[in-house]
Design brief:
heterotrimer; A alpha/beta (458); B alpha+beta (327); C mainly alpha (288); A: 458 residues; 2 domains; 6-stranded mixed beta sheet; 22 helices; 15 strands; globular; C: mainly alpha; 13 helices; sugar transport (chain C); membrane (chain C); cell membrane (chain C); MetI-like_sf (chain C); transmembrane helix (chain C)
Chain lengths: 458, 327, 288
């Protein structure tokens, strides 16, 4: 199992390692991760044992009722972000404060530790007023009563959801109500290194390129010290390929009861990936264990890799890296997978009014322009998404339009409380197939055996 | 069987770099079947000498011979020497039987053979009932008996004792002296016994070696050492009481044993005032100015009394004032 | 007998900080609790789930394997270093002692990250060294057994505390006991096995019990930071699984069930050395 992160790239421990290795380039990243880890790592059982005590203590402060507090009351906002992203959110917060908002305490947590910190904060009665969370992970929080539906709050703050793209709003609608307000509408794209393409004499990826083009490109790029493409063994990476090939992940996206990766369309898509890996155009097991994919891309060891918009701030910081993005290769239908984070208001927040005011600003014209300029987000507000703040080719990636082109074909993974664990199970098994050469059918059977009961449990 | 030490030198570096001569040219011999007592104050080098013979300390110079064989470079375990430590050095985790037999086991004797040997030695020393106990369940005397048994079991070439009776109470000590002698006789090997107790040295030793500051000052039968101390240092340290040493006249120091000094109310001799009187059973110790005398209780003067001390000329010892050597 | 009030602060402290939370955790073990609303009593549901929770029992198996390999290795290392470094004073001994203690001065997380580098298949010195020596690389981060071996390596060398305790135990043995063996012609092996180790045994035993607990618990940091439970759950130890259950999937109630279970299992495992030692001591006492 590897840690899932809000954006959807599956960070393995190796990314921490590579940060450690490539210290000159990545010191802040490595330090951010390890220091946060250190804070809670050594005494797991003690922490677990302490929870009941905190529970008792917090029970006393649970009585916040209908009072929504002053709209300028001080609030806490937790985001999962690497250092480069955290800088973007910091500028958002200071702009909000300058624009007459209340005081905001920003708590940036490394992406690996974001969920953990959130769970413990809730358990200890010290939850942030606002937190940013991926749609693949918010379901347990909603189902367990941690989230206050944001719809009415935003309506009071003057936000009209009609100005926003629909797909993320749908993903964050649970039990018929908009639970959290999406900040972005990212999707899976192909990052590619222009210098390596030029060196190999390979033409830039075209829109709607086919899987065969993609495989051929990866092969042509693979040479001494360079691999063509890197793909994490995770369901969020595989999902668009499966869909594109006419397959499905689960039987019913709205109320899944079992996985369907073993069915022909899905299986064939996965087999294509296994074949691509078999061709030697992807980093081998040791290379993957030695360094994370984004770091391999930054240092020119892979020419392409699949991820969402989240990589942009860090890639921009890498000197001498000339990169762009391209749409996903198409197996059958053009399709991509939604990557979206939303601001949620904690149900226990005593300052719901202030929280809503902040969220309204963050997803509003100014807020989204700021985060778009920082490179972090594909704005969920249509007017900003189509503005130069996002599309300007002056800053990499030049082809940001790719993200907007994907919007009509976006689909999202099921929203169900046990999904994070299902993703871990599928990820662990796909890793066996992709890296250890375990036969695909064996792995698919194991996924059904382990994941289906999880889907049925809740 | 004999032990010979020749020209032994051993220097220790004490803290802060100061050097201490623990052995400063020691020559010594313990003859077959002899009990040689080494006596001296603490720091005189007597324990170092014992450890040198045992092989626990290497020599800077000189050599050690056991049965005429040079064992100077031979490790302790191959010198065939038994050593009884102060406070017995029993192994607290082993029972008495195992403690007695551990040497045999260490040398690789089979357990069954060791068991019978242990029982045999225990019978000789009359400690059979102790065999099943643990060391913590023993009295001080019993512990030393077990230690003696451990020494006896191997029939060593030499038996070394390092103040074995130091922590044993007075009554038991008298009895143990006899037992140690008995053991030594039954083994028939030279025994070197280190002690700081003059009385014990006189009582037990066939011969006595008096040590001070890393040197052997005198080595002779106890009666001779008592009667004719070789130096002022021996005279001061050996014997039940230190010898009176009078201020030098013409480069000669005159000494006389307190036992030979008589205290008279009048008559010829050195006149003086009684400074102190210490009763000691039938007798008492009287200090007249700088002269100590041992007199019968009945003749005891009172402190402050004017008296005269005398002795027979043949009881006088004469030493060179400069070297301290007997003249 | 009237001294018990002196223990009161300690007892109060341990009651408040250990027993009460433990009791609450034990109570939580029978609930569904996610940290957001009050726990919901679910009777024996969690126990039923526990019995059928193959992943957890696999993780317990991995923890047991790691403890079974690491605890003896750690004791060997701590006691071995104590025996080697007990003898002389002087610069070499001082340096040796410092070196033996040093790994324990490094915080666990830093130590783990250091090993992450040491074991790195492409850039790490250990695989490189093995390559130079012609020893096949077990794949410290890439194969299941290689990763377990890597975990063992990470956890074996932090024995500073145990080393110091063992050294104190070694130095507490009077020198004359060893001299007695030397004079009797006993080999160094005989002295070590019949005198030194038996006399150190009570302390080593305490160390073993403590190590059992430490290793099971501490397996968490390296598994989280070095192997992240992988590859394919090969190093998913019980504490890491509980951590994920509690903080990644948010199931605090069931995680309490798991951690109380682990606590009981660790207790049983820690009693093992005690039982072993009792048998040994009886054996020792009886024989010559």
């Amino acid at each position: 199992m590897r840690h899932t992160v809000p954006d959807g790239s599956r960070r393995s421990s190796t990314s921490t390692l590579s940060s450690l290795l490539a210290c000159s380039a990545l010191v802040p990243r490595a330090c951010a991760r390890s220091s946060v880890r250190t804070a809670h790592a050594p005494s797991l059982l003690l922490t677990l044992l302490a929870i009941p005590v905190l529970l008792v203590l917090s029970a006393c402060s649970d009585g916040a009722g209908a009072d929504e507090g002053s709209p300028t009351a001080p609030i806490t906002v937790q985001v999962g972000a690497d250092p480069e992203e955290a800088a973007v959110y910091r500028s958002l917060v200071s702009a909000y404060e300058e624009a007459g908002g209340g005081e905001v305490e920003l708590v940036p947590v490394s992406r690996d530790d974001h969920l953990t910190r959130l769970s413990t904060a809730f358990a200890s009665g010290d939850a942030p007023d606002v937190f940013l969370i991926n749609y693949r992970e918010y379901a347990p929080f909603v189902q367990r009563g941690a989230v206050r539906p944001i719809g009415p709050l935003l309506a009071d703050a003057g936000v009209d959801t009609a100005d926003y793209y629909e797909e993320p709003l749908r993903a964050f609608t649970y039990d018929g109500a908009l639970q959290c307000m999406p900040q972005n509408i990212s999707s899976l794209v192909v990052y590619w290194n222009r210098a390596l393409f030029t060196q190999a004499g390979v033409p830039a990826p075209k829109a709607d390129w086919s899987w065969a083009d993609f495989v051929a490109t990866a092969g042509a790029l693979t040479r001494d010290g360079v691999k063509g493409v890197g793909i994490d063994p995770s369901i969020v990476r595989m999902a668009p390929l499966v869909w594109s090939n006419g397959g499905t992940i689960v039987d019913d996206d709205a109320a899944p009861t079992r996985t369907t990766l073993h069915e022909p369309g899905a299986r064939a898509a996965l087999q294509s990936v296994v074949d691509l890996i078999g061709s030697g155009a992807t980093p081998d097991k040791e290379q993957l264990a030695a360094q994370g994919l984004p770091e391999q891309f930054m240092t020119g060891k892979v020419a392409m890799f699949l991820s969402s918009r989240v990589e942009v701030p860090a890639l921009r910081e890498q000197r001498g890296l000339d990169f762009d993005v391209a749409g996903l290769p198409v197996m059958g239908e053009p399709v991509s997978v939604l990557h979206s984070d939303a601001y949620c208001v904690a149900s226990g927040s005593e300052n719901a009014a202030a929280a809503a005011k902040f969220v309204a600003y963050a997803v509003g014209q100014q807020g989204q322009t700021l985060t778009a300029l920082g490179g972090r987000t594909v704005p969920s507000l249509r007017s900003v998404a189509t503005s130069p703040a996002f599309l300007s080719p002056a800053r990499a990636p030049a082809s940001s339009q790719v993200f907007l082109d994907a919007i009509p074909h976006l689909r999202h993974t099921p929203v169900t409380p046990s999904w994070p664990e299902v993703e871990d199970v599928i990820g662990t098994q796909l890793e066996r197939a992709f890296e250890d050469g375990v036969p695909l059918d064996e792995v698919l059977a194991e996924i059904r055996k382990q994941a289906d009961p999880l889907l049925q449990s809740r | 069987m004999s032990v010979v030490v020749e020209g032994a030198r051993k220097e220790f570096r004490a803290r802060r770099g100061a050097r201490v001569m623990a052995l400063d040219g020691v020559d010594l011999e313990a003859k077959p079947g002899e009990l040689l007592v080494i006596v001296g104050p603490s720091g005189s080098g007597k324990s170092t000498l014992l450890r040198v013979i045992a092989g626990l300390e290497p020599l800077d110079a000189g050599r050690v011979l056991i049965d005429d064989r040079d064992v100077t470079g031979v490790p302790a375990g191959r010198r065939d020497v038994a050593l009884v430590f102060q406070e017995a050095a029993l192994f607290p985790h082993l029972g008495v039987a195992a403690n007695i037999g551990i040497g045999e086991r260490a040398r690789g004797t089979r357990r069954r053979d060791v068991e019978s040997r242990v029982r045999e030695v225990a019978r000789v020393l009359d400690i059979e009932p102790l065999l099943t106990r643990m060391p913590t369940e023993l009295s001080g005397g019993e512990r030393q008996r077990v230690a003696l048994a451990r020494a006896m079991i191997r029939s060593p070439r030499v038996c070394l004792l390092d103040e074995p009776l130091a922590s044993v109470d007075t009554e038991l000590r008298l009895r143990m002296r006899g037992e140690i002698r008995a053991v030594q006789r039954s083994l028939g090997v030279p025994m070197v016994h280190v002690t700081h107790d003059q009385v014990e040295a006189m009582a037990m030793g066939d011969r006595v070696a008096v040590m001070a500051q890393g040197r052997v000052l005198q080595c002779d039968i106890p009666a001779e050492v008592y009667a004719r101390p070789a130096t002022t240092a021996v005279a001061r340290t050996f014997g039940p009481l230190p010898m009176n040493l009078l201020p030098a006249v013409d480069g000669v120091v005159t000494g006389v044993r307190p036992e030979r000094v008589r205290v008279n109310r009048s008559g010829a001799g050195r006149a003086g005032t009684v400074a102190a009187v210490e009763p000691a059973g039938e007798e008492c110790l009287v200090r007249v100015d700088d002269v100590l005398a041992r007199v019968p209780m009945a003749d005891a003067p009172h402190p402050g009394e004017q008296v005269v001390v005398t002795w027979r000329p043949e009881d006088e010892h004469h030493f060179d004032a400069e070297t301290g050597a007997r003249r | 007998m009237r001294r018990w009030p002196l223990a009161a602060p300690y007892l109060a402290g341990s009651a408040l900080l250990v027993l009460v939370p433990l009791g609450l955790a034990a109570a939580l073990a029978f609930t569904d609790y996610f940290g957001f609303r009050a726990p919901e009593f679910t009777g024996a549901d969690n126990l039923t789930r526990l019995a059928a929770d193959g992943t957890f029992w696999d993780a317990v198996g991995i923890s047991a394997f790691v403890a079974a390999v690491v605890v003896p290795l750690r004791l060997l290392l701590a006691v071995g270093a104590a025996l080697l470094l007990a003898r002389r004073r002087g610069a070499r001994t001082a340096v040796g002692r410092a070196a033996a203690y040093l790994p324990s001065v490094i915080p666990d997380a830093a130590w783990a990250l250091l090993w992450l580098w040491i074991l790195n298949p492409l850039y790490g010195p250990l695989p490189a060294l093995l390559g130079v020596l012609g020893v096949p690389d077990p794949g410290f981060l890439t194969t299941p057994w290689g990763a377990r071996l890597g975990l063992v390596l990470v956890m074996t060398f932090q024995v500073g505390e145990a080393f110091v305790v063992a050294l104190a135990a070694r130095l507490a043995i009077p020198a004359r006991l060893h001299e007695a063996i030397e004079v009797e012609g006993g080999s160094p092996w005989f002295a070590m096995t019949r005198v030194t180790l038996p006399l150190m045994a009570p302390i080593v035993l305490v160390l073993a019990v403590r190590d059992m607990v430490v290793v099971v618990q501490n397996a968490f940091v390296p598994t989280l930071l070095v192997t992240d439970g992988g590859p394919a759950n090969a190093t998913l130890t019980a504490p890491l699984l509980i951590y994920r259950r509690a903080f990644e999937y948010g199931e605090l109630g069931y995680a309490s069930t798991l951690s109380v279970t682990l606590l009981v299992l660790t207790g049983i495992a820690a009693a093992l050395p005690l039982w072993l030692a009792a048998r040994l001591a009886a054996h020792q006492r009886a024989r010559t």
